[in-house]
Fold this protein.
Amino acid sequence: MLPYPELQTHPHLPRRTFFNAAEPLLSSFKVVKESKSVLGEPIRAYAKGTGPIRVLLWTQMHGDESTSTFALADWIYNQSQSSDDSIWKKITLWVIPILNPDGANAYSRHNALGVDINRDARHLCSPEGRFLVECADALNPHWAFNMHDQRTLFGAGNTGKPATLALLAPSLPERFTGSVIHLKRAIALIGSAVLRMPEDMQSETARFDDTFYPLAMGDFFQEREIATVLIETGGGRDIIRHTGRMRTALFLKHAFDVLLNPSECIWQSAPGTYEALPENTSNLRDIIFKNAQIGDHKVDVAVQLRYNVVSKQWDMVCHDVGQLDYLHSYHLVDLSDVAPISEHEWRVRIGKTFLLPKSWERSIKEQNISAYAWVNPK
Ligand SMILES: [Zn+2]
């Protein structure tokens, strides 16, 4: 799997920049449906193929979750390089890259009104949510792929490994009376596609929380008896998520291979694979400072790196303070030998930007923590 060469760059691109690069890639698709976002940006469904298996796939319903859009571009690119195009006789694929263009431009989860489109499945007060459901009404898909990013703080169970991929066949409501075959298929598809991944990638794949959320789009689609797969691209050891991007593209490849060759697919054993995936767990942090001394007190401090769209730099944000042995981290900095800082110098607030005390900065530099190079590029 190779990245689409025109999109090698940093993933936090506004929508227009993305489409300037992706246009040649989509030239073999045709626009089948079009609408406008709150701020008048076009939202388009692109279609390819004439096959009997109908698939609807969308990315970036949350504007600041661009990795899956890149992964979609990578999968389309790799597909276009293949000499075998029999896929297009077997499936009819509609893709909506960047369902929330205003959010993408503003690097925001929400649309321009502030609506979370993933909580708008019943009321459809957002034009973006309405467009998605109109596409589903028009295509009547058998399959739906709902693609998101998740934060780096999710791990694969308690293994200490990141949940670089988190997958879900969204649940059905308790009092659901229809057929459940489609849900079983979604579960089997995930299991079968995961089994095709190399083992090191499988061990960094988690099962997303399966609580039923009636307002979430994926749950809404599943309830409509469309076999729905949620893909969350999470953190890897690289901050710009190249690892997650490539794995998501690979997962898409395997998922489509399974869809196209159902006889090869191990429908019976695959559900066990899905159930056996470790739970997606919020127990991982970007950097943990161990044994920090603040006056007479000794604490651990966990920070997350957050992209600042205004300064176009990465900030450190304080996430947890206390005895943090129950957490895992990508990077660990032991401050046991660093002199205490006074309680009055310690002006840290949870959820706020964290400016590193000078003595801590020396430690992080000595330990050559790669993530810090993003926060302090000098
Ligand atoms: Zn999301």
